[in-house]
Each structure stands twice: as C-alpha cells, then as structure tokens.
Amino acid sequence: MTAAQPSDPDDLTTGPHPPHVSLRTIMTQWTRIGITGFGGPPAHISLLRQLCVTKRGWINAHEFEDGIAATNLLPGPASTQLAIFCAWRLRGWVGGLLGGVCFIVPGLIVILGLSVLLLSWHPAPAVIGAAAGAGAAVAPVAVQAGASLVPASWQRTGATRGGRARWVAYAAVSAAAAMLLGPWLVLVLLAAGVVEAACQGHRLRITRAPLPGLALAGWASVGTLGSVAWTALKVGALSYGGGFVIIPLMRADAVDRHHWLTGDEFLYAVALGQITPGPVVQTVSVIGYAAAGIAGGLLAAVVAFTPSFVFVLGGGRHFDRLRANPAAQAFLSGAGPAAIGAILGSSVLLARSISHPWQWPILALAAIWLLVFKRGVVSALIGAAALGVAAALVGLPLH
C-alpha cells in the first residue's frame, strides 16, 4: 500500500535520505497528538505510528519499531521519548525539540488547570467526589499497566538458562520494595538489571552522575522549588517501565517527606495524570503545583522531561547500537520484570491511600472493567468519577 501524499508541498523530498518535513507540520501534527492522546503510551504509540508510518510514510515500519525498542531501553517516559525521536528523525535536534514540546504542552495546560480547580479554589463537593471516585480506580489501573507488560518481558527471559526463575525473583523483590522502601525502589530496579547482565556474562560500566543532577541534588535543600526540582529530576530520569514505577518515590517525597499533598490528594494527582492527554509523567506537575503554585508545576514539568530530550537528542544517532548491544538487552531483561513488580507493588500503595469505605466498591468495579472486560483506562476513570459525584450528592463523606 502506498502512503498518502502530504498536502503541504514542503513535507517531503524524494531520495534515500529522511524526508524533509516542515517545522510547521511538526508543530501542528505533534500538537494534535498531544491534544488527542488520551489513554497513555499505547494511544501515543498508535497515533505516532499512524502519522509517521501508515499515513505519511515519513519513517519505515522497521525503523519505527527500532525506535520503540530503543526508547524502552531508556529510563523516563518511553512514549514521550518516541515522540521526540520521530520528530528528531525528520528535522534533527530542532525538530525533536519542537515536536517534544508540542507533544507535552497540551496535557500540561490541562493538568495544571485541573490542579487549580481541585487544590486551590475550595471546590464544590461534586468536584471532590469526582476526584475521590477517580482516585479509587487508580490501583486497578496500575495493575492493568503492570499486567500488560508481562507477556513480552516473560518471553524475553525464556531464551536464557534459569531466566524464568530469575524473572519471578526480580518481580517479587521489586514488588516488596515498592511497598516497603519507597524512594529507594529505583536502586532495586538498577540492581536487578546489573545482576541479570552479570548472569548472562556481561559487565556493565557505571559512569558518574551528570553535573546537572548533582547540582539539583544540592539545591534540594534550598527552598521548596529546589525540592520540587529534585523530585522531578528523579521522576524523569529514573522511571524505568513507565510512570507507575516511580509512584513510591513520588509519594514518599510529596506526602511523607514534604507534606505537599495528603494521601487522598496524591491519588487525585495520579488520576489526573491518567485521565488527561499526553504523558502520564505529567502527574509530577500536580505535585509541583501543590508545593509552589503554577511556578512549581511548570518547573516540575521542565525538569522531569529534560532527561528525555537529553537522551534522545544527544543519543538518537546511537540507538541502533544501543538496541543491538547484548549488555543493554541483558540489563533490560532484569530491569523489566523488576519494573513490573514495582508497578504491581505500587498498586498496593495506591489502594492503601483510600480513606472512605464507599471507595472500595468503586475500586472493585474498576478492576472488573479493566481486568475482566479489558476495557480502557479513560472510560474506567470517567465512570469512577461519575460514581464519586453520585456519592457526594447523596452525602457520603468526602474528607
């Protein structure tokens, strides 16, 4: 099947090299995906594939799949990195920067607006009820996210001797760590990758932390904005396997350490990150807003997404070698099941944050909707929010 020709005459040039796509086209198309990308990474990947491979023919199918594989090897939000990669592939670092920003900003505007509505203006009981209802459904959403990663990860480990047994061990230890260790969970993920690489006969070389990270670590003790920046950097640079992996770290900082949010409000933040378009890591913007208003929300977003731009714009030309690197593949074979365990363990943390008995039936209904009927996340959260509104209208407790 021949790809449809673009309407913009500047979109393509012929020849063996990557097509020349105008920056105007990248801006409009990546903004469109940022606005319509409800449903998290699966929706984002589908929209990017439809645009870049199926409809416009800008990137061939094999290269697109290689981009998915390479971005899954990196820490941080993989679908955001794929959006940056596709735009970088078409127009270099300027295109990657523009495409990434246009992909992120629509969801950021929506989630900051909802944060203002929910956290600042003494919202009506119906608004609080909607948030509490959606928050009750977040734990099953995490279970679904973890379960969806199991088949590919399980198949990856089948080719190595003892791989399946180690897979179970990595997942179990990481699930326990998510429930017990909080912000130290990331060390367990990294250790699982290193151990698996060693079991497969590879030696990983660990480099020193980059100076910006060290600087932010120092700033963490300098005021609220410094603490917000440090939390956001950890979220953006250490979230192997998706946003749910970093839930224990975010909760430890936002609820337990700094008290920017209550346990209930943290559930609301996670629900907003799921229900708004764009990357799920936008949850950190709600935390930043709770800590320091709009400035804190914007700072959290900028810091959390900066590692993704650095990884892709600085290393995109090496993605072929990264994907073919046996040591990197071995590391992912260990870190992958550990990330799945962390997501499932995080679901327990999220469920334990529920504070009202009427939320438990909503959690059960969401679990049936997602795990038995295999329906979508957005519909589950909207339905749970509607039940929360009904709870508020009949006078059930909200605080």
Q: Can you tell me about this structure?
A:
The radius of gyration is 21 Å and the shape is globular. Helix 12 packs across helix 13. With 399 residues, the protein is mainly α. Helices cover 74% and strands 0% of the residues. The termini are far apart. The chain folds into 2 domains: 84 residues, no CATH class; 286 residues, no CATH class. It is a multi-pass membrane protein. Keywords: Cell membrane, Membrane, Transmembrane, Transmembrane helix.
Features:
disordered N terminus; membrane; Chr_Tranpt_l_chain; CHR_Transporter; 399 residues; 2 domains; mainly alpha; 0% strand; transmembrane helix; 74% helix; 17 helices
Can you summarize this structure?
The chain is an all-alpha fold and 399 residues long. Helices cover 74% and strands 0% of the residues. The protein is globular.
Note the topology.
Elements: H1 23-36, H2 41-55, H3 61-72, H4 78-119, H5 125-136, H6 138-157, H7 163-180, H8 185-199, H9 211-219, H10 223-238, H11 247-257, H12 263-275, H13 283-315, H14 319-324, H15 326-352, H16 359-372, H17 377-393
Helix pairs in contact: 1-4, 2-4, 3-4, 4-12, 4-13, 5-12, 5-17, 6-15, 6-16, 7-8, 7-15, 8-15, 9-10, 10-13, 12-13, 16-17
Pfam families: Chromate_transp
Family: Belongs to the chromate ion transporter (CHR) (TC 2.A.51) family.
Transmembrane segments: 97-119, 126-147, 167-192, 213-233, 286-315, 327-351, 357-373, 380-398
What's the helix-strand series?
Answer: HHHHHHHHHHHHHHHHH
Could you describe the largest sheet, including whether it forms a barrel?
none
Q: What characteristic shape results from the CA principal axes?
A: globular
Structural class: mainly alpha
Straight-line distance between termini: 57 Å
Membrane topology: Multi-pass membrane protein
Family: Belongs to the chromate ion transporter (CHR) (TC 2.A.51) family.
Organism: Dactylosporangium cerinum
Region (Disordered): 1-20
